[in-house]
Write a structure and sequence with these properties.
With 416 residues, the chain is an alpha+beta fold. 52% of the residues lie in helices and 18% in strands. It has 15 helices and 13 strands. It has helices at 2-15, 17-45, 80-87, 126-129, 142-147, 156-163, 208-211, 237-254, 269-273, 284-316, 318-326, 331-367, 369-373, 375-400, 407-415; strands at 57-60, 63-67, 72-78, 95-107, 115-122, 134-137, 151-155, 172-175, 178-186, 200-203, 222-223, 226-230, 258-261. The strands form 2 sheets. A 6-stranded mixed β-barrel has the order 4-5-10-7-9-8. It has a 4-stranded antiparallel sheet with strand order 11-3-2-13. A hairpin with a 2-residue loop joins β8 (172-175) and β9 (178-186).
């Protein structure tokens, strides 16, 4: 019977190649787009090294400085003064880190040319919040950070480019025309891990401009820093927020004409996926209005295609249906026989979408160069695509042989 249905689907596709081709292509692209959207959100939400603790991290990247009249003066990052007085004294978290990044020239002695790289200025708590894989050496210490010693941790990609090997500990690099001693080399970080990402990591105390406080503007509270707070458990989020508000109130009491507000910080990884960035709050409702509406449209498109082709098929076979009914065919059987070729046609469209998705995913990875160079991100994309390809193969097998029905479910029950 399946052979008859396949022949009918093929003949149906040949009847109007242009219209049916557009229908199949639309369904395939819709499936591929939905899969790709899911892949992007999986990468943004999932925990993976060096951001393995995403579900226990609170993000603070917004600060509003208001005048004595309550009107906002500045929206931006935090100064070192705010980090030192309001975040480092927190007792509830497991670790607190503050950081900022800049694009600066990097080379080694004797090189006349240089390239600009992402330099992450941070503290020793950074290595507690994020779990980097050290291929050589160790991170800079608390004493290095306090003393402002020019120590640097670099990525293995930069180490190979500058020194030809990852064993670069003890070597010297020049950054912004100053010498730094390399104390460690870590595995390259994907840009998808935006808080941990960098090419070089150094103590922010080596940069005097980050420590300066412009007391004439908002009493020295504004700056470039953002912060990540690692909780011992997600159940500690609310106590940490309350402790932050207490320190904020005490700090505001020490100011004369300025009051600080964290706005929508701190926020969790899930809130970040929904669109919260500290200055604006993302909600599930807002997400459904934007991305959710797109996904809904992409899901409706194949359904509309199926409805259109099914109605067309019923109209074309109306006389045949009458003859079959006269010979005693059941209504359910007739409807099933007429619908099955259309279902098979769209199943092939779904499989085409499943095949297209890995191609699109890999193209996206290669478009964002550093994404594809990170094995962790590439593995996530490939595992995701292979999972859908597995579904395609098993469903095709179930179509070809009814005895294999439930193969996918049986596999996952076995894995579980």
């Amino acid at each position: 019977m399946i052979t008859i249905y396949l022949k009918q689907s093929y003949n149906l596709l040949k009847e109007n190649r242009f219209v049916n081709g557009i229908s199949v292509a639309g369904t395939a692209l819709s499936v591929a787009a939905v899969m790709l959207i899911y892949l992007v959100y999986q990468v943004n939400f999932s925990a993976y090294a060096p951001e393995s603790n995403r579900y226990r991290i609170l993000f603070v990247n917004s600060l509003q400085a208001c005048g004595s009249d309550g009107n906002p003066i500045n929206n931006g990052g935090m100064s070192h003064k705010v980090v030192r007085e309001c975040l480092y004294p927190l007792q509830m978290p497991e670790a607190v880190t503050a950081f900022t990044d800049r694009q600066l020239p990097v080379n080694i002695r004797g090189q006349q040319f240089y390239d600009k790289y992402t330099i992450k200025f941070t503290d020793d708590g950074f290595w507690k919040v994020f779990d980097f894989t050290f291929l050589s050496g160790v991170p800079f210490t608390h004493a290095d950070w306090e003393s402002g010693i020019r120590q640097a941790v670099i990525s293995d990609k930069l180490a190979r480019k500058l020194f030809g090997t990852v064993e670069a500990t003890g070597q010297t690099l020049r950054m912004n025309y100053a010498d730094y001693q390399i104390c460690g080399v870590v595995k390259e970080v994907s840009q998808a891990a935006e808080n941990a990402y960098g090419d070089v990591w150094v103590p922010y105390t080596v940069n005097s401009s980050l420590l300066k406080e412009n007391v004439n503007y908002c009493e020295g509270t504004t700056g470039e820093f953002t912060s990540c707070i690692l909780a011992r458990s997600s159940s500690d989020f609310e106590p940490i927020r309350r402790e932050m508000l207490k320190l904020q109130a005490a700090f505001n009491a020490s100011l004369t004409n300025t009051k600080l507000d964290y706005m929508y910080s701190p926020y969790t990884q899930w809130q970040a996926v929904l669109g919260t960035n500290g200055f604006d709050r993302g909600t599930v409702g807002e997400w459904f209005k934007t991305t959710g509406a797109t996904v809904l449209f992409l899901l409706l498109l194949p359904a509309l295609n199926i409805i259109g082709i099914t109605l067309t098929q019923f109209r074309k076979r109306r006389s045949e249906i009458g003859v079959r009914k006269a010979f005693g065919a059941r209504s359910f059987g007739r409807a099933s026989d007429d619908r099955e070729p259309v279902d098979l046609l769209h199943r092939w469209a779904d499989r085409t979408g499943v095949v297209i998705c890995p191609v699109i995913s890999l193209q996206v990875i290669f478009l964002f160069g550093n994404y594809c160079s990170d094995a962790r991100y590439a593995d996530t994309a490939l595992h995701f695509c292979c999972g859908f390809l597995f579904h395609a193969v098993t469903e095709f097998a179930e179509c070809r042989d009814p005895r294999l029905a439930g193969l996918t479910d049986a596999y996952y029950r076995g894995v579980a």
